[in-house]
Design brief:
With about 70 residues, the chain is an all-alpha fold. Helix content is about 70%, strand content about 0%. This is EexN family lipoprotein.
Length: about 70
């Protein structure tokens, strides 16, 4: 029972602070750092943060252009 409690508490450790896409857009050096980490070990960084960094890089490159709608 004690071992199960210890395992449960270990799993509830502090999580990394979440960075929004908007925050990353304002910090291109952080985007590059996250992208590097994602290439090295995506499972350690997490899919969500990797996707946010990719979206931030796209926004920096393409700007805030409205999407074209197909006819």
């Amino acid at each position: 029972m004690l071992l199960m409690l210890a395992a449960t508490l270990t799993a509830c450790g502090p999580s990394q602070p979440s960075e929004s896409v908007d925050t990353l857009v304002a910090n291109p050096d952080r985007i590059k750092e996250i992208q590097r980490q994602c290439k090295e070990d995506r499972s350690k960084v997490g899919d969500e943060l990797c996707l946010r960094a990719a979206e931030a890089a796209n926004r920096r490159f393409f700007g805030d252009r409205p999407e074209k709608k197909s006819k």
